[in-house]
Design a protein that fits this description.
The chain is of the alpha/beta class and about 300 residues long. It has a single domain (about 5-290), classed as Purple Acid Phosphatase, chain A, domain 2, CATH 3.60.21.10. Helix content is about 20%, strand content about 25%. It contains nine helices and 14 strands. An eight-stranded mixed sheet has the order 4-5-3-2-1-12-13-14. Strands 6-7-8-9-11-10 form a six-stranded mixed sheet. Helix 1 (about 20-30) links the parallel strand 1 (about 5-10) and strand 2 (about 40). It is globular, with a radius of gyration of 18 Å.
């Protein structure tokens, strides 16, 4: 471990599986021979403080209400976890901390939109997904299932806030930027066994954000599959490396890690093996994804997932 280096882990949609991802992070630390300094989660975390709320409102209602154990102090997250909201969250609780806040020891909600300094990194973030009908409507306090669903959509003022950011190390969004499959196809056929998702996956608002802000890295989830592509880099436009993460069913494509020297990512990899899949200066594309394991490729792209 180089002095001053940083190990950052990123998680796809947790959907309440906190015990599982903590075990994955334990395994990653053992493989890399160092502690994970900070964890970033890209939405659909589902941090319900009360077990009853989880049973009534969670997308995965049949699962144990694991976050309630952290909220009431039975368990403590081993590493600082910072997350954005997806479209499945405890929006009643998050409404009163729209600028971010601590939900449990070592668990922090970044907020709906903005910039935070996290472990010395400039992390921009936009919670939620795009719903054109509600894009310019005011955000209502979630008092019903309907208004809670609407809280999972980002608004124009929030997008404008993120658009003004510059010098961003990492941009966290829930929904993919539009056009990633087209960009990947320009580089050639996908690796054996992999297929490209629909050209309509993602939204144009997030794509414009990336092309305006030019973050060095973009981390996203929502569509429950891993993907890797580079945007920008033409002329004077800086490169933005986009890493899309699967939901937290297995670590190979839902856990992504980066080792940094200062604010620069020196190497990165997937899963818990600690194997380096990419080093600074190498191309960032579908070739960096881990080999597909047994069983069908994870490719659910449902908007409500």
């Amino acid at each position: 471990m180089t002095p001053g280096s940083l190990l950052v882990a990123a998680l796809g949609d947790i959907h309440g599986r906190f015990h599982r991802v903590e075990a994955w992070l334990d395994a990653l630390e053992e493989a890399r021979g160092r502690a994970v300094d900070v964890v970033l989660a890209v939405g659909d975390v589902e941090a319900f403080r009360l077990a009853d709320d989880h049973r009534r409102k969670a997308a995965k209602r049949a699962m144990p209400a694991e976050f309630a154990e952290y909220a009431d102090g039975q368990r403590v997250m081993k590493r600082p976890l910072y997350f954005i909201a997806g479209n499945n969250e405890d929006f009643e609780a998050l409404h009163d901390v729209q600028e971010g806040g601590q939900l449990a020891p070592n668990v922090y909600y970044l907020g709906r939109a903005g910039l935070k300094q996290v472990a010395g990194l400039r992390v921009g973030y936009l919670s939620g997904i795009h719903a054109p009908r509600f894009y310019e409507q005011p955000l209502k306090r979630p008092r019903s299932l309907d208004t809670a669903k609407q809280a999972g959509y980002f608004r124009v003022a929030e997008v404008e806030r993120v658009s003004a950011l510059r010098d961003v190390d990492m941009l966290l969004v829930h929904e993919w930027p539009r056009g990633l499959p087209q960009k990947a196809q320009e580089e050639g056929p996908p690796p054996p066994g992999r297929t490209l998702p629909s050209y309509w996956i993602g939204n144009p608002i997030t794509r414009r954000l990336v092309e305006t802000v030019h973050p060095r890295w973009v981390l996203c989830g929502h569509s429950h599959r891993a993907f890797a592509v580079t945007l920008g880099g033409n002329g004077h436009r800086p490169l933005s490396r986009v890493a899309c993460l699967d939901q937290a069913t297995r670590p190979e494509e839902s856990l992504f890690w980066m080792e940094l020297e200062g604010r620069t990512v020196a190497c990165a990899g997937w899963g818990t093996s600690g194997r380096v899949a990419w080093r600074a200066g190498e191309p960032w594309n579908l070739g960096v994804l881990p080999p597909l394991g047994p069983g069908p490729e994870s490719s659910s792209v449902l908007a409500g997932s």
